[in-house]
Amino acid sequence: MNETMNAAFLPGNSTVEMRTVPVPTPGHGEVLLRVKASTICGSDIRCIYHEHLGKGPEGYQGVIAGHEPCGQIVAEGPGCRRFKTGDRVIVYHISGCGVCNDCRRGYMISCTSEKYRRAYGWQRDGGMAEYMIAEEKDLIALPDELSFADGAQVACGFGTVYEGLEKIGIDGNHAVLITGLGPVGLATGALCRKLGANKIIGIDVVPERMKIALDMGLCDTVLQSGPDNVEEVKKLTGGYGVERAVDCSAHYAARATAIRATRKWGRIVFIGEGGKVEINPSPDMIHDQKTVYGSWVTSTWLMEELVERLVRWNLHPADIITHRFPLANAADAYALMASGKCGKVAVCQDEELV
Ligand SMILES: [Zn+2]
Ligand SMILES: [Zn+2]
């Protein structure tokens, strides 16, 4: 193995800086991964790429970028208990302390340790490099039936959606509204199909995304975002509205639409991050007995359950990847993702770069 590798950093002015850095050595309880696929998230663009906006858990510390990595173990440090060289693994993207209450529930995303909580690609080196170090406790086994690009999609996008959908419950009785058809919205459509939803309505503003949702069969109907959306959704659902709604947009108007286009006793989950919403609690929620859930990423155990389900459903998250780039062209990958004119964008190596 070489002693140095290429790695991508995000200086915060809508550019990518490639640097040559040493290939790291895994310490106790850590493994070294050959990164095979590393996808770009909306939060990378929102909080890091354009400018370093994030504070606390979203504060970027100038590390190697990329929090959605998937790869193969090429070396292990002392003290590893389960995973070994050759294993194919997904990295849960936040490394928690492991001993606070949130970590013990598997939700390392909300680890309460200021000292030990470090997210890959934010506060510790991430997946936009030839190799990366991960802690063994953060790994999820990648089944043989799934590709590395499938796995990278599980790391943040599909896992986050699955968690939100489990909270509100989706079945064959439900019409579902998805506001925002970026990669997370597309993943919502794909998972709702497998969970049995028989009518899926999407709303977005970007024509490329609306077309992807329809072409891939992830939505039955796609509406152009606008002031008539609530009425349009009701018209498509017997005049009542959907039973379930998922906001993936974080847009204030779309969030209000998600709530208002949901029928009595319905459930809404907010997944999209940032922004605001304004509603009138009595007519919009209280009188109609509605429940709004918030959902932040997922747990390690639910991620394990999801990869098992993906195999059972023959669902390949990599299908929503519309563009793949080699690491050397990471700048083009981030620029495309920032434009929004795409599905998911991945930086890939070896067999995943096809
Ligand atoms: Zn992400
Ligand atoms: Zn913790």
Description:
The chain is α/β, with parallel strands linked by helices and 354 residues long. It is globular, with a radius of gyration of 20 Å. The model has no long low-confidence stretch (mean pLDDT 96). The longest helix is centred in the middle third of the chain and has 21 residues, at 148-168. It starts with a strand and ends in a 6-residue tail after the last strand. The strands form 4 sheets. Strands 3, 4, 5, 8, 9, 16 and 17 form a 7-stranded mixed β-sheet that branches. It has helices at 42-49, 101-104, 148-168, 183-194, 207-215, 229-235, 252-260, 281-286, 300-313, 330-339; strands spanning 4-9, 17-22, 30-39, 69-76, 88-91, 94-95, 118-119, 131-135, 139-141, 175-179, 199-204, 221-224, 242-247, 262-270, 291-294, 321-326, 344-348. A hairpin with a 7-residue loop joins strand 1 and strand 2. It has 10 helices and 17 strands. One zinc ion (ZN) binds next to loops.
Any idea what the shape is? Answer: globular
The largest sheet, given as strand count, sense and whether it forms a barrel, is: 7 strands, mixed
Q: Give the strand tally.
A: 17
Portion of residues within helices: 25-40%
Taking pLDDT < 50 over at least 5 consecutive residues as the criterion, the unreliable ranges are none
The separation of the N and C termini measures 23 Å
Bound molecules: zinc ion
Please work out how many helical segments DSSP would assign.
10
Strand content: 25-35%
Q: Structural class from helices and strands?
A: alpha/beta
Name the assembly state. Answer: single chain
Query: Averaging pLDDT over every residue, what do you get?
Result: 96
| Strand and helix order | EEEHEEEHEEEHEHEHEHEHEHEHEHE
The whole-angstrom Rg is 20 Å
